[in-house]
Amino acid sequence: MIRFILSDLRRLWAGSLVVVLLVALATALGVSVVLQERALRLGSARAADKFDLVIGAGGSETQLVLSSVFLQPSPLPLMPGEVLGKLAADPRVDWAAPIGFGDSFSGYPIVGTTTVLAQNLSGGLAEGKIFVREGEAVIGAAVKLSLGGEIKPMHGSLEEGGETHTELVYHIAGRLRPTGTAWDRAILVPIQAVWHIHGMEGEEHAGDGEHEHEAASGTDSAEQDHEHEKAGADHDGHEHHGEADPDAALDESWTAGAPGLPAILVKPKTIADAYKLRQDYRSDNTIAVFPGEVLTNLYATLGDAKQILVAVASGAQALVAASLVLVTVIHIGQRRRQIGALRAFGAPRGAIFGIVWLEFFFLVAVGIALGFALGYAAALTLSGMFSETSGITMPVGFAREDAALAAVLLAFATILAALPAVLAYRQSPAQALRA
User: Fold this and answer.
1) CA-to-CA distance for 41 and 296, rounded, in angstroms?
2) Which of 294, 376, 386 is nearest to 43 (CA)?
């Protein structure tokens, strides 16, 4: 029987190939959706695990996490600089690191921060040393630059028509170990240098809050320009530039006069301290969030999108199944003489049923297996592209529930293959030979 089926498949190889490809493509669509959604969940959750608590000014909690944890450019309001001093002196805090962004270089975001974050973000350096002067920088593991290279910061990005700063050129002093987060594509520089090149001097520039907002959040909107005019600013809408000394030593002793900040990353000493700090800094002026909790809300939205995509994939599979039924019915009609000859030579009805069922089931099963392989390859490709642009590692892999999906598809193939087998089973030899 097996030899007869293989011979039949070789003779009808073109039609068999079409059946396999149809099933494979329909299966691959559903598998890739499931794998990609899972990879996005795992990758983002692991990236958020690096940060216990994020504190920012009032506003959107989701945007605060997206900007500070995933380094997605977006305007953020500034909180008073004195918050950093309070956190640094709080006995419940292991360390607190301010971050300021808005500049970039060659597509990589430049993040102003402190040595404590550079030391704790990846558990040490892969090479080089931590920055100790204003003109030094530490790069993430995925930044394609070399130690000793120059970094000329640009306000905003090249696509937005950003302006290159001429006040300071950073030199790369070290490279972080891989973290699997968006920070692998970041360039870390002393926040002291960011303040200086943007003309932010704390209390001395208390009237320049709009400049601080531009420098820390990387935006220059029409609304900000209107505020500039109301404040009597004497510039043309571009950010205020200051002066920076690349050889200046770092001073990370925070005072109440520190410039405003968009976000502070906090490492509490204990879990209890984390909840107390979150409660204390949920006020009119600040918000404190656990990145994992914010991601949970995003996952709910992502789950809705997944259901829609799965429904689309299921619809495609149903259309393919209907097409296969039509094709097989026509195919059985074209093979009536062959089936009649087999019956005339003494082949029992059960053997005819088995041949047709096994042949069609084999084609569908091969298509399902190929679909899983194609879906995995597609998810792996998409995740690789996303990781390349975001820096977040996207783990693509099969889970236990995927075996259940494969079992359901094979069970459906068993039922689908029975239809042409029943049609062949019911044909009489005399009618088949007269056709």
Assistant:
1) 10
2) 386
Buried b (16+ CB within 10 A) or exposed e, 13-40: eebbeebbebbbbbbbbbbbbbbbbbbb
Token output for 24 = 């494979």
Q: What is the CA radius of gyration of the chain?
A: 31
Dihedral, CA atoms, 92, 94, 98, 104, nearest 10 degrees? -150
* Distance in Å from the first CA to the final CA of the chain: 25
Instruction: Collect all residues with Cβ–Cβ distance below 8 Å to 214 and sequence separation of at least 6.
Output: 102, 155, 198, 220, 224, 239
The pLDDT of residue 330: 64
> Phi then psi for 53, rounded to 5 degrees?
-145, 135
pTM listed for this prediction: 0.72
Kind and range of the H or E run holding 347: none
- Chain mean position to CA 335: 51
Question: Beta partners for 103?
Answer: 110, 155
Q: List the beta bridge partners of residue 150.
A: 171
% of the chain with per-residue pLDDT over 90: 26
The Cα–Cα gap between 177 and 124 comes to 7
Q: How confident is the model at residue 210 (pLDDT cuts 50, 70, 90)?
A: very low
Sign of CA dihedral 168, 171, 173, 177: positive
C-alpha 209/C-alpha 232 separation (Å) is 12
Q: In this structure, are residues 211 and 227 in contact, taking their beta carbons and an 8 Å threshold?
A: no
